[in-house]
């Protein structure tokens, strides 16, 4: 059965591949799975029909037969567990890849998203100029730790995995901040992932929605 995912009808990122449906698109492309997309407006996201799929009124959602999932990390884990290409077969390597998925979402992403929100919501506040450097230092601490761990390896733990997929898309949220460029091995890591054919297909599919509207 072909799954259906939801995505923004008008994405706030303007098709730059930062909306979280990009994560699911990429996972499906990496595993060679066809999928349908249902576009939803901001108004529709808060209506009962969509809230039945996602209780917090966000995207993406994933529908496959009787299964309905929300939260991009959970959706990607489901895809990876049921289709080859995103998790190693060896049990310990598989567990480590899943740990990197959690690290991307729970350790690296929160200070990056907080920085984004502060930039949008508090840019005109008198304390913004003082707060931003503090937030940048929090991000630098995490990037430094991640950079040390990655070293000169191609991927986080052996072959490309769902952990890399999520980590790369989290790091991409720093574009325009110049923070990622301070860590050349992380910048190269992101570029390496962006060169993957599955990433390119997912990016172009999401971008097409923005350019068609």
Key features?
213 residues, alpha+beta, Glutaredoxin, Glutathione S-transferase Yfyf (Class Pi), Chain A, domain 2, 4-stranded mixed β-sheet, 9 helices, 4 strands, 56% helix, globular
What this model shows, in words?
The chain is of the alpha+beta class and 213 residues long. It folds into two domains: 4-85 and 198-211, Glutaredoxin; 91-196, Glutathione S-transferase Yfyf (Class Pi), Chain A, domain 2 (Up-down Bundle). It has nine helices and four strands. The chain has helices at 21-30, 42-45, 48-51, 72-82, 91-121, 128-150, 162-171, 184-194, 197-211, and strands spanning 4-8, 36-40, 61-64, 67-70. A four-stranded mixed sheet has the order 2-1-3-4. A hairpin with a 2-residue loop joins strand 3 and strand 4. Helix 5 runs antiparallel to helix 6 and helix 7 packs across helix 8. 31% of the residues are buried.
How large, in whole angstroms, is the Cα Rg?
17 Å
Mean pLDDT, to the nearest integer, reads 93
> What overall form do the CA principal axes indicate?
globular
Low-pLDDT segments: none
CATH topology of the largest domain: Glutathione S-transferase Yfyf (Class Pi), Chain A, domain 2
Distance between the termini: 29 Å
Order of helices and strands: EHEHHEEHHHHHH
What is the CATH level 1 assignment of the largest domain? Mainly Alpha
How many beta strands in the DSSP annotation? 4
Largest sheet: 4 strands, mixed
Task: Give the DSSP E fraction (strand runs of 2 or more residues).
Answer: 5-15%
Q: Helical content, roughly?
A: 55-70%
